[in-house]
UniProtKB/TrEMBL annotation:
It comes from the Eukaryota. Transmembrane segments: none annotated. Residues 48-383 form the PORR domain. It comes from Artemisia annua. Keywords: Hydrolase. Signal peptide: none annotated. The keyword Transit peptide does not apply. The keyword Hydrolase applies. InterPro entries: PORR_domain, PORR_fam. GO terms for molecular function: hydrolase activity; RNA binding. This is Ubiquitin carboxyl-terminal hydrolase family protein.
Length: 392
């Protein structure tokens, strides 16, 4: 037997057969009722799979485990973790996944073993050099996450959110795990913590109109600059449903979707329709107003745009339901606008993607911390053409 593997097994009292796990595959379809003549069954509309976005979930598994183990090791006083303590850190079941990661990536993790010393895992020399850059990267990220957190509060009805809700999505926003102690007190002019009806909430300090610009509006302004230089030409209406206008969203329909002309004409009307900014208070608008319904789509678009990887789990989206006045039938709203959003059931949790942010399975624009993680993961042989993973 490989001495390294024997060392791992002797330090962890468990059975390798317990490593087996099962995964369920989900297939989503939505039944749409149509007016039909007697005797006909309602037609079923298939929810088209986006295999590249499904792949993005699969690609995050190993990097997520590597980054989590890195954080555990760096959190130790002597920067190493005794293998016998691995189960305490990650749980009985997950320890086998981490053993596999340690074994598979010697360029990232080094296992020390001596005659009288218990086996311990630490970062390799190359990994240590890259990890040393993280402090500088976190400094670059601080103004980004502070502005995004302010924008998130500005999206909410009362300009405040329960701290437990923010904590639920802190990793996706790029916030440190201890943001309540390390970040919030540093900016008393921007944030205050208050008790509201028995819930601890984070409240916006100063409204900043310069921040009340959506990612959609920023994209439109960039496109107008390209138009003025003659480097970009768009048809008035096209088969992909995209329309270059101040109130239009960027659409990316799945490969199997074939819209007819009637659908495209209705879509063009919707794309041209003006709507209130997501940063205006939702209480001012009637839910039944088509413009207010389009505004809700804008709120979802902006919320996903504020995350590092432009995606959230369904549970995380639902956590903002009351504060952002999201629709009661949120799932149907996301499915209806499948040119913008994609829901995948790959992995343990369903995840909602902002499709325009991805080129295949690759996230197009990456913040400094994601670029840092790509650099770290590159030690395993993976390239930054693959998506980064948010580690908690």
């Amino acid at each position: 037997m490989n001495p390294f593997r024997a060392s791992l097994k002797s330090s962890l009292h468990g059975n390798a057969s317990e490593k087996t796990s099962f995964k369920k595959q989900f297939h989503m379809w939505v039944q749409i009722m149509h007016k039909t003549s007697a005797g006909r069954r309602p037609r079923k509309k298939v929810y088209h799979r986006e295999h590249e976005l499904d792949k993005a979930i699969d690609l995050q598994k190993k990097p997520s485990a590597i980054l989590k183990l890195k954080s555990i090791i760096q959190g130790k006083k002597d920067k190493c973790l005794l293998l016998r303590d691995l189960e305490k850190e990650v749980g009985f079941v997950q320890k086998w996944n981490f053993i596999s990661v340690i074994e598979k990536y010697p360029a990232v993790f080094y296992v020390s073993s001596g005659h009288k010393k218990a086996p311990a895992v630490m970062l390799s020399e190359k990994a240590e050099k890259i990890a040393a850059e993280e402090g500088g990267v976190n400094e670059l990220m601080e103004p980004i996450v502070v502005n995004n957190l302010r924008k998130l509060l500005m999206l909410s009805v009362e300009c405040r959110l329960p701290l437990e809700t923010i904590d639920f999505v802190h990793a996706e926003l790029g916030l440190p795990s201890d943001f309540k102690e390390s970040l919030i007190p540093k900016f008393p002019e921007f944030f205050s913590v208050k008790d509201v009806h028995g819930r601890t909430c984070l409240e916006l300090g100063i409204w900043d109109s310069s921040l009340a610009v959506t990612a959609r509006e920023e994209r439109y302004m960039e496109e107008r600059i390209l138009d003025s230089t003659g480097n970009m030409k768009r048809p008035r209406i096209s088969k992909d449903g995209n329309f270059s206008g101040p109130f239009a969203f960027h659409l990316k329909f799945p490969a199997g979707f074939r819209p007819n002309m009637s659908y495209l004409q209705e879509l063009e009307k919707w794309q041209k329709m003006d709507f209130p900014s997501p940063y205006l208070n939702a209480k001012r608008f009637e839910v039944s107003d088509p413009k207010a319904r389009k505004r809700v789509v804008g709120v979802l678009h902006e919320l996903l745009s504020l995350t590092m990887e432009k995606r959230l789990t369904s549970a995380q989206l639902d956590a903002f339901h009351s504060e952002l006045r999201l629709p009661a039938r949120l799932l149907l709203c996301l499915i209806k606008h499948h040119g913008m959003f994609y829901i995948t059931n790959k992995g343990a949790k369903s995840t909602v993607f902002l499709k325009e942010a991805y080129d295949g399975s690759r996230l197009v624009d990456k913040c400094p911390i994601l670029k840092f993680r790509d650099k770290f993961i590159a030690l395993t042989g993976r390239r930054d053409s693959e998506p980064s993973s948010c580690a908690t």
